[in-house]
């Protein structure tokens, strides 16, 4: 969900001429080249990046230096990536990390076994 | 898996790591400098090689100083590996890291850990909500992307970094809604015995005083002696509540930046089973090292804030001292030459550290913000509260490792970095013993998460 | 050096050791109404209980010693009731699941060896169900299995629990029944007088007519003091733990399992390295390779933790259960399957300690069996 951005460029920043296009949960975003994914999301009005696997509580970047693992998102299909350590790239597909990751796209049901004794 | 042999592997390209690497290369040693970020600088000089001049200017001269170090690094023979996530250092000086998804190994003759500091956890109600960040995180956004809060922000806690950020925000024209300071007037009184030493470090002290004065004169609402801090909100932060002198206060905001000092990042020194001690002034564990930063593990050195908090300039000097120690160990320098070169560095270091006891005393994090009430989340990853932790103590948990087994605190992706100190202190208080006696998590590799495929070498 | 004794604690039974073995016995004792004291070491002790894989495993155990198989199965079959009792006493669900378990084989030779081992057990015990599955049959049951696995054995009695929840449930349940725990206690000596044992730990003293040695790797030294022989030694196992993932594996296997919390545990290494519980890259990489071969989709899963823990291994790999002839009332209880055997330890060992008959499977497990010139192997 997008809201008013929590962070924006300070007045003295010359607006970057280079931008890259990416998506967050299928929403198109245009962000300055060279930013970390976490910074790009924060300035784009994305303030909740994931839900925890334990209680599904909302979380967002906390330390921005790779320590806290609160900024985990799915990037180009790879879950649980630290968005504060990854630079934005053209065409990146980013998704919020909703709880524990899936290993596979469809959970596999394992049938009950019958064993002759 | 590729194997590289070098004289020295340095981990961390902050103030200590850069200056040590340059010094080691200058002494004719082959150095590889490994750093997780995409550009050198560490956290204090984050993004220094990329920041436009206007941003450097806004951040102030202390930040701009990092550019000199980064230039020296670029001009040196040091092999600088960016984007390198080191996940293991062995007592035999083997360093294993991931870069671009590939496992790499460096066999060195000596290793320097220059992994710096991280912010002390600030466990208060609501500190896990979106909209709450550490002040250091906000400063990284400013340094690396020129970003600042879009709406009036609340800064809360204490310590030089918090005030520096406030000052930088003022220069950048960012609105600060309130500075909620946990420092009490009596903290200055308590620190008075260190004041004389601090006065001898007058340039530092004056810088700090100027900074505080400009914050006050900017007309920011400045609360001092704030207690019972809590962030309000269900899905995101909506306000900071606290009390001053028994009077309840509430400041509405979507953005709360917390800070109460920095502590050494000791993941590697702990994983090497080096000896650590509990620092009663800085309220943290630091590795025990000799005059050159060597741990009780031969050939493994530590410099900078990872050895105990001293700040960027001290870190750079410690890096140079460690370089001399390593060069001497590797036979590049006679003892006499080492001592001769070390003397001015030691004088400079002493001058730099003179102000520390005063700062440590004035801005010591408050007990209620280190050892929180039962309902407060201590382990953010596994969502273990202080109350649960206390129940484990009542069941007979003597320390953090048994508590980890009982309740998973410290078992999540951050590997205990965000809860380690809190867990130690909560247990110590509950048991009525010192934090040093309780001890710390047993840290083991991988220090950074790696995938099974990467470990399997596939 | 004579120390001033400041503190004397009386009890009916003293259990030395607060790991899975000691607390299971203490739980059984306290449930029976015995006034029990548990002495546990500090936070930095070597603890097999914190490094457990969590299997309640029957498959293949005791193929060369049928009484061990009987003992193991007597515990596995008591586990459901035991888990319920723990739930009632502690409110903790230890997440027992006994859907049967797989042992993957990576070569035809391994598969044949597996079959002969399980057949031997079936021949000796009669009622011992198992199945051998070839690659296609296995794939039908575990669709995510990798092509390197040529087949597997399956037995329906195998299962797993959350071993950390078990440890906490045992502590909580024993204390709920009145057992008193003392943490951070390092036992200096045990003095045995007729009808009374006195355990000295620093300035503290504990006195009881019965004492149970469940101190894991601390047992050899303690056993000697009460006329018992318990020559156990460390055997290191290394384990990898992944980030939490959504459920993908409903069955425990010998080298990979998914916990109720979603993390994946991998590991089945065994090393004789003395008192060194660190990890080594080579072994961890081998565990990772085997895990990825078993389930290739694990390749991209991130590891969060790795640990080494020391198993408590006797020379032949089997447990040691014995009451001292020289000092009746002193018992040694030591094994490396603290999870599987927890139910038996609580429900069958505890009554024996309180004066009941020794369970009949246990005759072969006295420590004296090691007082020979025979060379033992625990590579079962």
Overall morphology of chain B: globular
CATH homologous superfamily heading of the domain at 19-98 in chain A: 2Fe-2S iron-sulphur cluster binding domain, sarcosine oxidase, alpha subunit, N-terminal domain
Distance between the amino and carboxyl termini of chain B: 9 Å
Order of helices and strands of chain A: EEEHEEEEE
Distance between the termini of chain A: 55 Å
Structural class of chain A: mainly beta
CATH architecture descriptor name of the domain at 19-98 in chain A:
Roll
CATH topology of the domain at 19-98 in chain A: Ubiquitin-like (UB roll)
Q: Structural class per helix/strand content of chain B?
A: alpha/beta
> Count of DSSP helices of chain A?
1
Oligomer: heterotrimer
Largest sheet of chain A: 7 strands, mixed
Strand count, sense and barrel status of the largest sheet of chain B are:
7 strands, mixed
Count up the domains of chain B: 3
Strand portion of chain B, in percent?
A: 15-25%
Biggest contact: A-B, 42 and 49 residues
CATH class of the largest domain in chain B: Alpha Beta
* Unreliable stretches of chain B: none
Number of strands of chain B: 23
Care to describe what's here?
The complex is a heterotrimer of chains A (117), B (458) and C (380). Chain A has 1 helix and 8 strands. Chain A is mainly beta. Chain A has a domain of 80 residues: 2Fe-2S iron-sulphur cluster binding domain, sarcosine oxidase, alpha subunit, N-terminal domain (Ubiquitin-like (UB roll)), CATH 3.10.20.440. In chain A, strands 2, 3, 4, 5, 6, 7 and 8 form a 7-stranded mixed beta sheet that branches. In chain A, strand 2 and strand 3 form a beta hairpin. Chain A is globular and about 40 Å long. The C terminus of chain A is likely disordered. Chain B is an alpha/beta fold and 458 residues long. Helices cover 38% and strands 24% of the residues of chain B. Chain B is built from 19 helices and 23 strands. In chain B, the strands form 6 sheets. In chain B, strands 1, 2, 3, 4, 5, 6 and 20 form a 7-stranded mixed beta sheet that branches. Chain B has a 5-stranded parallel beta sheet with strand order 8-16-10-11-12. In chain B, strands 13-14-15 form a 3-stranded antiparallel beta sheet, with no helix packed on it. Chain C folds into 3 domains: 173 residues, FAD/NAD(P)-binding domain (3-Layer(bba) Sandwich); 56 residues, no CATH class; 81 residues, D-Amino Acid Oxidase, subunit A, domain 2 (D-Amino Acid Oxidase, Chain A, domain 2). Helix content of chain C is 28%, strand content 24%. In chain C, the strands form 5 sheets. Chain C has a 6-stranded mixed beta sheet with strand order 9-3-2-13-19-18. In chain C, helix 2 packs across helix 5. Classes of the chains: A mainly beta (117), B alpha/beta (458), C alpha/beta (380). Chains in contact: A-B, A-C, B-C. At the A-B interface, strand 1, helix 1 and strand 5 of A face helix 2, strand 8, helix 5 and strand 9 of B. Strand 1 of chain A pairs antiparallel with strand 9 of chain B.
């Amino acid at each position: 969900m997008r809201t008013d951005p929590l962070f924006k460029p300070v007045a003295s920043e010359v607006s970057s001429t280079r931008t890259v296009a990416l998506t967050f949960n299928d929403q198109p975003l245009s962000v300055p080249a060279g930013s970390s994914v976490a910074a790009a999301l924060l300035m784009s009005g994305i303030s909740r990046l994931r839900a925890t696997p334990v209680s599904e509580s909302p979380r967002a970047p906390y330390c921005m230096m790779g320590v806290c693992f609160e900024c985990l998102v799915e990037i180009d299909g790879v879950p649980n990536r630290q968005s504060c350590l990854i630079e934005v790239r053209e065409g990146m597909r980013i998704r919020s990390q909703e709880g524990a990751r899936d290993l596979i796209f469809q959970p596999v049901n394992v049938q009950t076994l019958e064993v002759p004794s | 898996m590729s194997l590289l042999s070098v004289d020295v592997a340095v981990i961390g390209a902050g103030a200590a790591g850069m200056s040590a690497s340059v010094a080691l290369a200058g002494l004719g040693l082959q150095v590889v400098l490994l750093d997780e970020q995409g550009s050198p600088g560490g956290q204090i000089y984050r993004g220094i090689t990329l920041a436009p001049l206007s941003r450097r200017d806004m951040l102030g001269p202390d930040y701009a100083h990092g550019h000199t170090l980064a230039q020296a690094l670029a001009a040196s023979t040091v092999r600088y590996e960016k984007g390198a996530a080191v996940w293991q250092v062995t007592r035999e000086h083997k360093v294993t890291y991931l870069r671009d998804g590939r496992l790499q190994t460096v066999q060195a003759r000596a290793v320097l850990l220059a992994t710096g500091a991280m912010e002390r956890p600030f466990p208060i109600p609501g500190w896990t909500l979106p909209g709450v960040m550490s002040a250091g995180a906000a400063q990284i956004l400013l340094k690396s992307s020129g970003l600042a809060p879009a709406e009036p922000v609340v800064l809360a806690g204490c310590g030089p970094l918090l005030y520096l950020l406030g000052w930088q925000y003022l220069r950048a024209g960012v609105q600060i809604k309130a500075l909620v300071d946990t420092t009490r007037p009596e903290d200055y009184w308590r620190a008075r015995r260190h004041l004389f030493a601090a006065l001898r470090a007058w340039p530092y002290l004056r810088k700090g005083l100027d900074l505080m004065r400009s914050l006050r004169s900017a007309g920011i609402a400045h609360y001092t002696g704030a207690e019972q801090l809590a962030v309000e909100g269900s899905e995101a932060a909506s306000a900071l509540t606290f009390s001053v002198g028994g009077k309840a206060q509430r400041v509405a905001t979507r953005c709360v930046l917390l800070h109460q000092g920095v502590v050494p990042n000791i993941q590697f020194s702990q994983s090497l089973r080096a000896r650590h001690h509990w620092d009663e002034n800085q309220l943290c564990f630091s590795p025990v090292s000799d005059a050159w930063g060597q741990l009780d593990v031969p050939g493994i050195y530590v410099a900078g804030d990872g050895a105990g908090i001293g700040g960027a300039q001290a870190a750079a000097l410690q890096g140079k001292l460690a370089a001399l120690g390593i060069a001497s160990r590797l036979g590049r320098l006679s003892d006499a030459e080492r001592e001769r070169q070390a003397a001015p560095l030691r004088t400079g270091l002493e001058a730099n550290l003179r102000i520390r006891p005063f700062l440590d005393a004035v801005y010591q994090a408050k007990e209620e913000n280190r050892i929180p009430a039962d309902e407060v989340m201590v382990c953010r990853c596994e969502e273990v509260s202080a109350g649960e932790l206390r129940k484990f103590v009542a069941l007979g948990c003597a320390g953090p490792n048994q508590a980890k087994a009982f309740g998973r605190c410290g078992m999540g992706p951050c590997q205990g970095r965000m809860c380690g100190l809190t867990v130690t202190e909560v247990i110590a208080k509950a048991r009525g013993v010192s934090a040093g006696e309780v001890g710390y998590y047993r840290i083991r590799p991988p220090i950074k998460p790696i995938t099974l495929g990467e470990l399997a070498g596939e | 050096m004579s120390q001033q004794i400041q503190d004397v604690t009386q009890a009916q039974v003293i259990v030395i050791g607060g790991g899975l073995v000691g607390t299971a016995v203490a739980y059984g004792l306290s449930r029976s109404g015995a006034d029990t004291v548990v002495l546990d070491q500090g936070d930095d002790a070597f603890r097999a209980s914190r490094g457990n894989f969590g299997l309640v495993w029957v498959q293949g155990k005791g193929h060369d010693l049928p009484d061990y198989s009987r003992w193991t199965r007597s515990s596995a079959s008591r586990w459901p009731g035991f888990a319920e009792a723990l739930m009632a006493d502690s409110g903790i669900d230890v997440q027992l699941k006994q859907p049967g378990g797989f042992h993957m084989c990576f070569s035809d030779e391994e598969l044949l060896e597996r079959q002969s081992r399980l057949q031997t057990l079936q021949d000796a015990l009669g009622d011992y169900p198992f199945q051998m599955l070839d690659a296609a049959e296995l794939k039908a049951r575990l669709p995510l299995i990798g092509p390197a696995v040529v087949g597997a054995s399956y037995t329906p009695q195998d299962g797993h629990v959350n071993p950390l929840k078990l440890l906490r449930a045992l502590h909580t349940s024993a204390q709920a029944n009145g057992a008193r725990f003392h943490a951070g206690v390092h036992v200096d000596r045990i003095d045995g007088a007729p009808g009374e044992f006195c355990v000295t730990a620093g300035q503290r003293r504990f006195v009881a007519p019965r004492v149970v040695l469940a101190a894991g790797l601390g047992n050899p030294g303690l056993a000697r003091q009460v006329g018992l022989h318990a020559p156990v030694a460390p055997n290191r196992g290394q384990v990898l733990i992944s980030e939490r993932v959504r459920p993908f594996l409903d069955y425990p296997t010998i080298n990979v399992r998914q916990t109720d919390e979603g993390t994946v545990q991998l590991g089945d290494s065994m090393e004789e390295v003395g008192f060194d519980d660190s990890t080594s890259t080579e072994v961890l990489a081998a565990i990772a390779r085997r895990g990825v071969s078993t389930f290739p989709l694990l390749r991209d899963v991130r590891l969060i933790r790795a640990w080494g823990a020391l198993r408590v291994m006797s020379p032949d790999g089997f447990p040691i259960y014995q009451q001292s002839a020289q000092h009746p009332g002193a018992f040694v209880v030591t094994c490396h399957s603290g999870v599987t055997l927890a139910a038996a330890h609580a429900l069958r060992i505890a009554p024996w300690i309180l004066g009941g008959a020794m369970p009949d499977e246990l005759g072969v497990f006295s420590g004296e069996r090691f007082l020979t010139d025979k060379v033992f192997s625990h590579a079962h």
